[in-house]
UniProtKB/TrEMBL annotation:
The lineage of its organism: Bacteria, Bacillati, Actinomycetota, Actinomycetes, Propionibacteriales. It catalyses: L-histidine = trans-urocanate + NH4(+). It comes from Nocardioides aromaticivorans. The keyword DNA damage does not apply. Pathway: Amino-acid degradation; L-histidine degradation into L-glutamate; N-formimidoyl-L-glutamate from L-histidine: step 1/3. This is Histidine ammonia-lyase. NCBIfam families: hutH (TIGR01225), PRK09367.1 (NF006871).
């Protein structure tokens, strides 16, 4: 099993993906264990003090004014976790739960939270053994952390609540722990709060979204190149000297990809001579680098925010071990993460929108430069890809609704103590749905453009785009012909997008795209 070591510093994007999606196990470094022990000593000193300290010897949130006697503090921790494990709705995906567990462990490892080492080690063991608590869709306001999702995970450390085993079987936490040779913990002062007070759910989904969108941007460049080629567009507008006079970095990268993808295209070469009467291509073709590039730059900004958040210790109160004290703070507020999650939903919708517009041009005989209507075999008898574009349009319409930001929709809670919240969890959930929609829109553009390139025979596509056409055909996505059941072919193309077969096929011919 691949193992990821969690220390006192930031976990990497690659580590998050490896643990969340790849099932890697987790171990705490000696440095992290020493930091945890040092912070725990501070908490134990404060717990013995007659002076109330928030999160250590008081109630929580709007109930923070009550001093809790020592004999009630174990009950306090149990009550906190049980009451906050109040999620509802469908189960959240396994990779999301594993991601938030890893990121909570990363904060524990900084020595800023005051948990005991055995509590942190049990959280690491759950990840290593593939025990995944059941977390629900609804429950987080993205402020005071992703409270309900994290509480469901903390509940499992206590040996309570439903979990799924490594093979996906639904069972209770006590049974799963026992089967793995693990014992539940009894939470001590501060531990319950430390386990549930973080932006880990929304951050984990942000990291996974950046990982996915980075590859989907390459797919978008590939599908755009195939559309430019199939619609007899020009590649001259992608020249580097034209990008240099508007020096957005993402635009330059996308244009360079398009140039590389279209190199040695027989289709493009066929209309490059002086007798070509095409002056300018439509915006959806000509401006692909500007739109795709803007998305790239937005992803880069989101990645910088995610990197700072990965390097953070998000808890309240936080332990300042060197000073021997605990301080309240507002670092749990999810606003920075929520904003970029919403920003990514906006650019995801627009990336899908321009892809749908390129697809639509193939189907209109007035705009597709000599191809049959709807790329049909016998138009009128056959409908071709008419309704595949309807599917794209339906998805794009949905993505536009999902682009409405959640982060502006604060709603007060906890008797007005928590009177402004980020809704970052909601931002992340809708972004995941949006990315699924984008991948399907791009798959349909690939199917459409590949059919068009076949119809341009005997003209040959470029080696790179030809490799994508061959990939689709080799996996049963058929070319031109009479109408057939399209849904399975669209699903196959979609799978080739999300499993990165499309970008791999291109990389095997011209190298990795930028």
């Amino acid at each position: 099993m691949e193992m990821v070591t969690v220390g006192t510093g930031a976990v990497s994007f690659e580590d998050v993906v490896a643990v969340a999606r790849g099932g890697a196990g987790v171990v705490l470094s000696d440095e992290a264990l020493a930091a945890i022990d040092k912070a725990r000593a501070v908490i134990e000193d404060l717990a013995a003090s007659a002076t109330p300290h928030y999160g250590v010897s008081t109630g929580f949130g709007a109930l923070a004014t009550r001093h809790i006697a020592p004999e009630l503090r174990a009950q306090l921790q149990r009550s906190l976790v049980r009451s906050h494990a109040a999620g509802s709705g469908p189960e959240v995906e396994r990779e999301v739960v594993r991601g938030l567990m890893l990121l909570r462990l990363s904060t524990l490892a900084t020595g800023r939270t005051g948990v005991r080492r055995e509590t942190a080690e049990l959280l690491a063991a759950l990840l290593t053994h593939g025990i995944t608590p059941v977390v629900h869709e609804y429950g987080s306001l993205g402020c005071s952390g992703d409270l309900a999702p994290l509480a469901h995970c903390a509940l499992a450390l206590m040996g309570e609540g439903p979990v799924r085993t490594a093979d996906g079987e639904l069972t209770d936490a006590a049974t799963a722990l026992a089967a793995a040779g693990l014992a539940p913990v009894e939470l001590h002062e501060k531990e319950g709060l430390a386990l549930i007070n973080g932006t880990d759910g929304m951050l984990g989904m942000l990291v996974l979204a950046i990982h996915d969108l980075t590859d989907l941007l390459k797919v978008a460049d590939i599908s755009a190149a195939m559309s430019v080629e199939g619609q007899l567009g020009t590649d001259r507008v992608f020249a580097p000297e034209l990008q240099a006079i508007r020096p957005h970095p993402g635009q330059a990268l996308s244009a360079a990809n398009l140039t590389a993808l279209l190199r040695d295209s027989g289709v493009v070469a066929s209309h490059r001579g002086p007798d070509c009467n095409r002056v300018q291509d439509a915006y959806s073709l000509r401006c692909s680098p500007q739109v795709h590039g803007g998305v790239r730059d937005t992803v880069a900004h989101a990645a910088s925010v995610a990197a700072r958040e990965l390097a953070s210790a998000v808890d309240n109160p936080v332990v300042l071990a060197d000073e021997g004290r605990v301080e309240s703070n507002g670092n749990f507020h999810g606003a920075p993460v929520a904003y970029v999650l919403d920003f990514l939903a906006i650019v995801t919708a627009d990336l899908a929108s321009i892809a749908e517009r390129r697809t639509d041009r193939f189907l209109d005989k007035a705009r597709n430069h000599g191809l049959p209507p709807f790329l049909a075999d016998d138009p009128g008898v056959d409908s071709g890809l008419m309704i595949a574009q309807y599917t794209q349009a339906a998805i794009v319409s949905e993505l536009k609704r999902l682009a409405n930001p959640a982060s502006v929709d604060s709603i007060p809670s906890s008797a007005m103590q928590e009177d402004h919240v980020s809704m970052g969890w909601s931002s992340a959930r809708k972004l995941r749905r949006a990315l699924d929609g984008l991948s399907r829109v791009l798959a349909i553009e690939l199917v459409t453009a590949a059919r068009a390139l076949n119809l341009r025979a005997p003209l040959e596509p470029s080696p790179a785009t030809g490799a994508v056409v061959a990939l689709l055909r080799d996996h049963g996505v058929g070319g031109p012909g009479t109408d057939r059941f399209l849904a399975p072919e669209i699903d196959t193309a979609h799978q080739l997008v999300v499993d990165r077969s499309v970008t791999t096929a291109v990389a095997n011919v011209i190298g990795e795209l930028a």
